[in-house]
Design brief:
This protein is about 75% helix and about 0% strand. The chain contains 13 helices and no strands. About 40% of the residues are buried.
Length: about 260
């Protein structure tokens, strides 16, 4: 069998393995989903009236704030879900499974590909679930066209791919699953210091560069533009550059860690 069909076959096998594991042990993914869902409930029903004063020149109400934060929470969901990929990779690397696969006649990169594709699929399903909660709470995107919805889905998928590769690299570099989870925590914390909950322009001047020059803010503003019709500007291209750069970095990091000699 030639190398390409072998790689596809083995990667598909590893993908099925990861999805079956996630299906049989769903508690890990559900626990990671609690953070964005609880943030959505807390910010809308507890602090919604206060937080809405920070958008729209102070004239927004709770329904406007729901529309504002849901795109940010969707990408925060991606950041929280990929932590599961970091932990799963670390488990395989530290509990002997990877060493066993090295002795078998399989495509070497299939284990990583299975983790990445499985992680992206879990991210997309998690985003759909959080989005359904947002819709139940009143989020609407009546002005978005079918093409804009397709572009929004593509953006979420591309962003999930980039963060999953980074998470896989973190997991492969970690000495144990606990360290992998801790190393991936910035993927949850970065949305908290982005424009997910309030506009970056309303933050203190010294803090605004932190919010602006990171991957989540341009991705969130692009998603808002697609779903709500706000101005996207250069955020779309910046998001694509971030995603491509993070994917390349995560791929090189993951493969370097995976191919290193076992200790």
């Amino acid at each position: 069998m030639s190398s390409l069909p072998l790689a596809v076959r083995d990667s598909n096998t590893m993908l099925r393995r990861n999805l079956l594991h996630a299906w049989r042990y769903p508690s890990g993914t559900l626990n990671l989903l609690l953070t964005p869902i609880m943030m959505l409930l807390l910010l809308v029903y507890i602090f919604g009236d206060v937080m809405s004063a920070g958008i729209g020149g102070g004239g927004a109400d709770r329904s406007d704030y729901i529309a504002y934060i849901v795109p940010g929470l969707l990408l925060m969901t991606v950041g929280s879900t990929v932590i599961g990929a970091a932990v799963s990779v670390c488990v395989d690397m530290t509990q002997g499974l990877t060493a066993r696969f090295r002795t078998m006649a399989i495509y070497r990169g299939s284990l990583l590909v299975g983790h990445v594709v499985g992680g992206v699929l879990q991210c997309v399903m998690s985003v759909v679930l959080v989005g359904a909660v947002g819709v139940a709470m009143g989020f609407r995107s009546t002005d978005a066209t079918a093409l804009e919805w397709i572009a929004a889905f593509g953006l979420i998928t591309l962003f999930a791919l980039a963060l999953t590769w980074i998470a896989v690299g973190m997991g492969a570099a970690s000495p144990n699953p606990e360290a992998a989870g801790n190393m991936a925590m910035p993927l949850i914390l970065l949305p908290l210091i982005s424009s997910a909950f309030i506009p970056a322009g309303t933050m203190p001047g010294w803090f605004q560069p932190i919010a602006e020059y990171q991957p989540f803010t341009p991705a969130i503003e692009t998603l808002r533009g697609l779903l709500l019709g706000t101005e996207i500007g250069a955020n779309g291209w910046i998001t694509v550059v971030w995603c491509v750069g993070l994917s390349a970095l995560g791929y090189r990091w993951s493969t370097a860690q995976f191919n290193r000699d076992p200790k």
